[in-house]
Amino acid sequence: MTTAPVVSSATSTTAIRSENLCRHYRMGETVIRAVDGVSLVVQAGEFVALLGSSGSGKSSMLNLIAGLDRPTSGSVIVQDCNLAKMTREELAKYRLHVVGMVFQSFNLIPSMTLVENVELPLRFAEVDRGKRDALACAALERVGLKARGNHRPSELSGGEQQRAALARALINRPKLLLADEPTGNLDSHTGTEIMDMVRDFNQELGMTVVTVTHERALAERYAQRMIFLADGKLIDDQSNGASTHSGIQEGRL
Amino acid sequence: MKINDLAELAVRNLKESLLRNSLTTMGISVGVASLVAMLSLGTGLQALFSRRLEKSGLFDTIFVSSRREMRGMERREERSGPTPGESRILDEGARVEMEKLPNVSEVYPDIRFSSELQFEGKPHLTMISALPSSAKSNDAFEGMQGRFFASDAAPEVILQKAFAEELLGRTPALGAPEPQVAELAKPLLGRELTLHYAQRGPSTSPASPPSPDAASQHADVAGASYSVVSREQKLTIVGVSDLDPESMRGPMRARVFLPLRFAENLHVMQLADLRETSRAGSDQPVYSSISVRVKEPSQIQGVEDAIRKMGFTTFSILDASHSLQQVFKVLFAFLGIFGSLALAVASIGIVNTLVMAILERRREIGIMKAIGASDRDVQKLFFAEAGAMGILGGIVGVVLGWAIGQIINFGTNIYLKSQSIPPEHFWAVPLWLIVFAIGFAFVVSLVSGLYPAGRAARLDPVQALRYE
Which positions in chain A touch B465 (Cβ < 8 Å)? Predict the structure, then answer.
């Protein structure tokens, strides 16, 4: 593949591999096949977009990769670990150390300040208080919110909240960044800002990124690969050309 | 999660819905307060009773008499012991021997005699008894007017209320209110009484009277001869006691009290002298009965056995204290159950509050799980909140219960004062009760948190995150 150096250096390792992954819900008599036999491979350091209309199963797919949900059948292997076979406790550890997540609705805890929100994962990881503060401040600085550390989420704009959420996702140095419609609640300008930041994480920190979106334009602009889902099935898997990617880089410069 | 992080998060969550959590905590504190109030009343009453009983001298005193005295009342099982004829004489030697027994704090003879007292020229015949100085702490003298004897050998006298009335020539009409002790004591304190009594002279010199002004006569009983001298002694009234002689035991069943050492030195002829002197081989004083006080009521049994082995008849109220303990155990259980009821109701409040909190913070739980909180972390967090409410409620409850106790104690003592009864502490909050109450509140809260915490922990993060 003729892609950015970061990616090419990491192509040798597989970050995510799903095999015939299924997630079925039972609603009364009917069975909803949210994810229905999806097999895909994401290389380490890749920036992948999951596309599809609402109800296509892209969020369910993301939840399975995030270890928030368990597959009905099939397997999902992240960093050589089969999530389907993990206990709840192991899944919690996996979410804590391997995955960073951002959501459409930011999902910051309203009663906590930004610093407290950002350092919350470190509490679960039992990191010492002194270290915690320094790490949280550094993470906030990275997303340009150092000055707002003592504000509560409600005092911030949507873009700022999503940046804080990114800082929180970053705090445990995860290998994998999963984003569920991260720009869905933002205007296009702020959305671009956020996606720029996500791409920075991908390129500078070498994080593998999987983002769910229904905006094709955004996916084309940032992702190296686009995976299309419909009715829980993988219908298309196309990589963006090198030209697109270099175009972004130019745009950034 | 670390314990201090848990505590911090729990307290912050509790602060978030301050009103609801305060009300729940208040519920716990009311429960704890009622428990503390009930149990401290129980403890206080028990302490009051044991204090009273200790002071009454009923439970640490063994009454000793020679077997002869008990001739008519001997119980069947005692027949196996020495026969009355060979039983020992209760004399000074025996007293000293008993004093040397382990755990004995005091051995004093019971001096009790009937004699004539002259006041303002009028004679009054009454029962007189001697008191050891340890009787000072006896509750019988709590409501006393005046003071206790200055010393064990002072020529002083304490009168019983009814006798004071008699001296003053007042006979209360039937149904009339009891006269106040203070009123009776006022004209009597510091006044003098003259005691006329029969002194037992040394038996070896019946012909020589101890003092020239006293008339001397010979007594010849059962072959032994000794002199009896009529004597007079001036006594100062120092106190008037309001105790009822009918309610008192042994030596206290008298209307006039003398200091023990002083009374001993009088060598008043007592009834027992007539019988026992005939058997006594020496000049040592012979007593009709002796009171042996032990250091702790629990030591009574051992000392009593030792004295029985010496050949004397003993009597003590041992079983009463045991059954009293039993009664208090039952009382405690009852008070504890009633006190706990309020806490049980409060624990339902905790369950309710926490279940509400789960519904409210469903999304928050989802977020925490999404960013790496384990089931156990979430569970611990809810436990910590329940525990924090429990401890806080426990502390407030203990303070509340203590305050209620103080107020009731205060109020009751005002009432007691108006009835001129000395104030009492029948309310005690010992340290163990404080620790127990807070600990109990904590445990009850944790148990209440069991279901909500488990439910929060099992929450599906995907659904929780979808929840708005």
Answer: 68, 103, 107
* B355, B429 Cβ separation under 8 angstroms: no
Q: Kind of pairing, strands B112-119 and B192-200?
A: antiparallel
Rounded Cα distance, B431 and B424, in Å: 20
By C-alpha distance, the chain B residue nearest A93 is B372
pTM for the structure as a whole: 0.67
Q: How many helical (H) and strand (E) elements, i.e. helices and strands, does chain A have?
A: 9, 10
Highest mean predicted confidence (pLDDT) among A203-212, B310-319, B403-412: A203-212
CATH fold for the domain made of B60-111+270-316:
Alpha-Beta Plaits (3.30.70)
Residue ranges making up the domain that contains A140: 45-67+87-252
Interface membership of B371 toward A (CB under 8 Å): yes
Tally the domains of chain A. Answer: 1
With beta carbons less than 8 A apart as the criterion, state whether B112 and B254 touch: yes
Biggest CA pair distance of chain B: 119
C-alpha B214: how far from chain center: 47
Q: Which two tokens stand for residue B304?
A: 């009593």
**Shortest CA distance to B448 belongs to which of B337, B345, B359?**
B345
The 10s digit of each residue's pLDDT in B273-302 is 555 555 544 556 677 788 888 887 777 888
Residues in CB range of A164: below 8 A, 6 or more apart: A106, A108, A114, A117, A118, A140, A143, A145, A148, A153, A156
Q: Is B73 on the interface with A (CB under 8 A)?
A: no
Q: Write out pLDDT tens, residues A102-158.
A: 999 999 999 899 999 999 999 999 999 889 999 999 999 999 999 999 999 999 999
Instruction: Tell me if A68 and B369 make a contact (CB, 8 A cut-off).
Output: yes
Query: Of the candidates B266, B216, B294, B279, which has an alpha carbon nearest to the alpha carbon of residue B89?
Result: B279
Domain CATH number, residue A62 = 3.40.50.300
Give contacts of A107 with chain B, Cβ < 8 Å.
363, 366-367, 370, 465
Q: Provide CB contacts within 8 A for B202, sequence distance 6+.
A: B226, B227, B283
Residue A231 within a domain? yes
Whether A107 sits inside 8 A of B363 (CB atoms) is yes
Question: Residue A69 is encoded by which pair of tokens?
Answer: 């949900």
